[in-house]
Amino acid sequence: MTPDKFMKTRRSLVRLFICSVMLIVLTGCALFKKTPPPPPTAPPRSPARQQADAKAQKQYYDLGVQQYSRENYGEAKKAFEQALALGPNTALGVKAQENLKKIERILKTLEEIETK
Fold first, then answer.
1. In CATH, what number is assigned to the domain containing residue 99?
2. Do residues 70 and 21 lie in contact, with contact meaning Cβ atoms separated by under 8 Å?
3. Is there a domain that residue 90 lies in?
4. Can you tell me the distance from the alpha carbon of 53 to that of 102, in angstroms, rounded to the nearest whole number?
5. Could you report the per-residue pLDDT of 81-92, keeping only the tens digit for each?
6. What is the mean pLDDT of the segment spanning 24-51?
7. Into how many domains does the chain fold?
8. What is the mean pLDDT of the chain?
9. Which residue has the higher pLDDT, 107 or 36?
């Protein structure tokens, strides 16, 4: 094994180790209070219900941003998916969809690094 290839492999392993440790630490922490998702067969939404959904969507979106900034991509993905489910055509729904695409690219890149 050449020294360059050894250093690249070592850097990849160190990055993988750091990501793994961060994931373990963040998964074990119960820092955020999650609101339960709305029931799947909800009746027609009243204006009060729409406000509640908008509030829940913002909470899920904010949770996704927090998890994303902590590089906890699995939890961020779940939160953005919840925000998207509460209103795919809202401004936050569109942003959540964009962030989900970013997370998919990041996860794909991390998977490629692991296989090298």
1. 1.20.58
2. no
3. yes
4. 24
5. 999 999 999 999
6. 61
7. 1
8. 81
9. 107
Q: Measured between alpha carbons, how far is 5 from 59 in angstroms, rounded to an integer?
A: 45
Cβ neighbour number for residue 77 with a 10 Å cutoff: 20
The domain in which residue 110 lies consists of 49-115
**Residue 95 forms part of a structural domain:** yes
Within-domain flag for 9: no
Residue 3 or residue 56, greater confidence:
56
Q: Which two tokens stand for residue 23?
A: 């994931």
List, as one string, the DSSP characters of 44-111: PPPHHHHHHHHHHHHHHHHHHHHHHHTT-HHHHHHHHHHHHHT-TTSHHHHHHHHHHHHHHHHHHHHH
Q: What is the pLDDT of residues 5-14, one digit of tens each?
A: 777 777 777 7
